[in-house]
Amino acid sequence: MKKLNLHQIVRNTTKADRILILFLIIFCFSLIIFFNRIFSNKPSIHIYSEGKEVYILSLNENNQVNIKGRLGITTIEIKDKKVRFISSPCKNKLCIKQGWKDSGSIICLPNNVIVSIGEYRKGGIEIDAITK
Fold first, then answer.
1. pLDDT per residue over 13-53, tens digit each?
2. What architecture (CATH level 2) is domain 44-117?
3. Could you give phi then psi for residue 6, rounded to 5 degrees?
4. Could you tell me whether strands 82-87 and 73-79 are parallel, antiparallel, or unpaired per DSSP bridges?
5. What pLDDT is stored for residue 131 in this prediction?
C-alpha cells in the first residue's frame, strides 16, 4: 500500500474538489457563527407594554421595575437570573401565579404587559386579535 503525504493529496485534487472543500469549510464556519448567536450566553429581558418595547434589561443583574400598562402599574422582579411578576392590577393574577421564569415569556393579558426572556423582536411585538 502506497502512503500519500499532504502535498501529494493536494496535487491530486481537481479544481472542483478544491471548490467543494472550500465551500464545506465556509459552510461549517457559518454554522458555528449562526449557532453561537442563537445560543449566546447574553440573556436579556424585553418588556413590552401595550405592544411597545419599554425596557431591555439584563437577566444577570438583580432589579425591580414598574411598568405602566392598560389597567395600571405592574411590578416585575429580576433576581438570580430569573424573572417574575410581583404585583399587577389584573383581577385573576395569573401572571403572578406563573412564578419565577428563566426562559420563555410571562404575559399579563388584562394589563397588556409582556416579559419576554431572551427573545428580541425588532420594532416591538405584534398583538393579534387573539391577544387583544
1. 889 998 999 999 999 999 988 887 776 656 788 999 998 99
2. Sandwich (2.60)
3. -60, -40
4. antiparallel
5. 47
pTM, two decimals, is 0.58
The whole-angstrom distance between residue 113's C-alpha and the CA centroid of its chain comes to: 18
Q: Where are the domains of the chain?
A: 6-38, 44-117
Rounded Cα distance between 110 and 45, Å, is: 20
What's the confidence (pLDDT) of residue 74?
94
Across the beta sheet with 63-68, the strand order is 63-68, 73-79, 82-87
Residues 6+ apart with CB under 8 A from 58: 43, 44, 45
CA distances to 5, 109, 116 from 70, rounded to whole Å, are: 72, 9, 18
